[in-house]
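User: Second chain of the day. Same drill as before.
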Amino acid sequence: MELKEVIGWRRSIRFYLPHRPVEREKVQKMLEAARRASCVGNVNNTRAIVVWKEQASPELIQALTPPLGYQQMQTAPCFIVWYSDAAAYEVNKWIENLKGLAETRRLGSDAEETKRVIEQFLRPAFGSRWQEMAVAPLAFMDSGQAVAQATLVAYDEGLGTCLMSSPLMLDRVNKLLKLPETATIVCVMSVGYPAESWEAGGQTLKAPFEELFHEMEYGRPFAPDPKVDEELKAAKLIQEPAPLPWRDAELKYLVNALNLDERRQISLVIPPSP
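Assistant: Same format as last time:
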């Protein structure tokens, strides 16, 4: 598919074919797409742990389960825990990464002069603030870009995904996955072959364009061109909005066909008493 069509078809898939495993090579492609994402100073702070459900303990699956996530957790064969590692911003490592950009002609126009500027000006500045910058909005935005690229590659490979988060369980997940103290979990992604239709009930309704985007200053909406909207509809980036008329029937069918126990949601979400 073309890029705009992939973006248009993307849905948060919550019902998967539990009997169909996800090929390891397809997960590798997703991870490679994430590795290729833009990140400040080439720090490469985005990391991931791939969890195969059939190899995971019930305790780990329970810890990963967010509120209202019973469909994904009961049916997805694979999960990816995405996290940002603050250690990637350590000043000496960061400076070397920047010099590497200069040496490979990705930063500045003169490699040696650029490296001199990095040492003279950036090392002192980053030396006093790298820990702050490691948990600043830009660091997590970089992780978001990496996850987004992995998501689009998943759809291009015929897979579905859904991003989840549950602050109730983060400490348990950190311990179970033996994450370093410098790790901050960004999200958990379920991955699998969709059991629901690709429309998944229609394209999710979003806030009005003019409410989200402004021009020159806040309060001056960026006015969309109707001709561009029609072009994006033809490219399938803009599709039929949810809910499609047959969605309720599809949901009832999926719950029955996959033998999902909606009552399990309570036991999965509420942590056991100490």
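The mean pLDDT is 93.

User: Great, on to the next one.
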